[in-house]
Amino acid sequence: MSDDMRFGLSRQATLPGPLRLDGGVLLSPVDIAYETYGTLAPDGGNAILICHALTGDQHVASDHPRTGKPGWWTRMIGPGKPIDPARDFIVCSNVLGSCMGSSGPASINPATGRPWGMAFPVITIRDMVRAQAMLLDHLGVDRLKAVVGGSMGGMQALSWPATFPDRVGAVVVIASTARHTAQNIAFHEVGRQAIMADPTWAGGDYYGGEPPAAGLAVARMAAHITYLSEAGLTEKFGRRLQAREAKSFGFDADFQVESYLRHQGLSFVDRFDANSYLYITRAMDYFDLAEEHGGLLANAFRATRARFCLVSFDTDWLYPTIESRSIVQALNAAGAPVSFVELSSPYGHDAFLLDAPEMNRVVDGFLKGGR
Length: 371
Prior knowledge:
The chain is of the alpha/beta class.
């Protein structure tokens, strides 16, 4: 892997704005942290936007500066892979409201000189997409060859042709949905309440002090359960106990699955901001693409000429296949060209981030099919 591929070209753009949010607030200026890979073609026709999930970031195919771990989608992006910097100009930005360099609760409010905290305006998925469009304008990208995303990234990918129907040629949506169910919202609310019940949350004004690490860790643990499948958990952990010389009943992590979840929670607090978690999960819960277009999902796609590819996984109970099928039906009703496949995987929702050769073949064939 070349140095450019390993580390990407990481930047932060301060855009003058204003960005008009769905809530009516004008946000200005707007900071967007992003990474690019490859070179924009002279005709600008090779740009692909990658949209990340809830806890993701712009470090899609380069080492993470805080954790040192490889990018979160190196299985999809890289030399000889479906999205190749030798062929494509790849852009991945940190979403509005997040905490890896883009404007969000942890960034500085220019009016006060202090972190925004809970004074940061409410944001939506469509606001994230509008911020991405501002970044692409800044980069000189008029039209995208494709927008690709999984989970919350898939929500953004769906919102792109609905919001900017003339700016995208192809859309890849993996393990996602056009709106949250009551169950999705319920799981997110458990996480939000865990954060806000942490005494150190302090109404969101914890910057410069102790962050609500315990609450955020519990939120991550609860969410992480939804990313997995029962079969995957059973295969990996079952009811196996931790190996100990002497064990007494108590509230230590007696079972291996308990230890795993606690590790997930503790490692998460080192790289994520609790307030950002509140804002982004709320944006996901508000997302309802049909409601944005008169209550009919097909209306969201009538103005675009983009091609669509949808991928679901048979063990994903967070965004099960029925959610993808409803999007496919809406696309058919709108007359949009769409391909759809349900893939088999034991890994649940997280399958799109793991080694999935069949998914790579589907995405590779779809993107090449548009040449």
